[in-house]
Write a structure and sequence with these properties.
Largest sheet: 4 strands, antiparallel
Radius of gyration: 17 Å
Pfam family, one: LAGLIDADG_2
InterPro entries: Chloro/Mito_RNA_Process, Homing_endonucl, LAGLIDADG_dom
Number of helices: 7
CATH architecture of the largest domain: Roll
Protein name: Homing endonuclease LAGLIDADG domain-containing protein
Keywords: Chloroplast, Plastid
Helix content: 25-40%
Order of helices and strands: HEEHEEHEEHHEEHEEH
GO molecular function: endonuclease activity
Distance between the termini: 49 Å
Strand order of the largest sheet: 1-2-4-3
Structural class: alpha+beta
């Protein structure tokens, strides 16, 4: 890829970047941290979402999303398809690379309390969120599997303190996830629904008042 070192991120790109880095996206460096590139990869089911993200970061890329196939060693007979794209290497991503990555991989930035805007939460949810019990509850979860228990606690408290969301942390095997209670459904919907891409609305509860917590 051609290296671009002076391209600055827009406000929109910054807010989306924070959200997807809390989710499935990652930053990669090829020159000892001098520059980074953003890589987005999602399943075939989320193809439209990938192309939506591509449009946001298009000016930082040199190729459109591509489809690729892979097989899981746990299920060798099954072939899955994914869509992905990457930006070029950018010095403007170096700061975020330093904030989101440490010696042991992805980490929670110490500045996250300044960065977690409603749009960022929406993209975090689209990347790594889901309904807790589809059709049976208005609760949702954020799959924060990349972060430590302490980091998940920080995120949970931040959602409570900054956005008045009622949250809890539950253990899933050796990882910890954030659950947003049905009690906070309308606060969460007001907060993030305007930013959800149409292709990802299936992830969000429909809001039936008869559903339990």
């Amino acid at each position: 890829m051609v290296e671009q070192t002076r391209k600055l991120l827009t406000a929109l790109q910054r807010e989306v970047l924070i959200g997807i880095l809390l989710g499935d996206a990652n930053l990669q460096t090829e020159n000892q941290g001098k520059t980074y590139r953003l890589r987005v990869s999602q399943s075939e089911k989320h193809k439209l979402y990938v192309f939506h993200l591509y449009q946001i970061f298009k000016e930082l890329t040199d190729s459109e999303p591509i489809e690729y196939s892979f097989s899981d060693s746990r299920n060798p007979g099954k072939v899955s398809k994914r869509w992905s794209f990457s930006t070029v290497q950018l010095s403007s991503l170096r700061f975020y690379g330093q904030q989101f990555y440490g010696p042991n991989g992805k980490k929670l930035p110490r500045l996250i309390h300044r960065w977690l805007m409603p749009r960022s939460i929406a993209y975090w949810y689209m990347d790594d969120g889901a309904q807790k019990w589809k059709g049976r509850s208005l609760a949702v979860r954020f799959c924060t599997d990349n972060f430590t228990r302490s980091e998940v606690q920080t995120l949970s408290k931040l959602l409570e303190r900054s956005y008045s969301l009622k949250t809890s942390i539950q253990k899933q095997r050796n990882q910890f996830r954030i659950y947003v209670s049905s009690d906070s459904f309308f606060q969460l919907k007001t907060l993030i629904y305007p930013y959800l891409h149409p292709s990802m609305l299936f992830k969000f509860p429909e809001g039936d008042h008869s559903l339990p917590v």
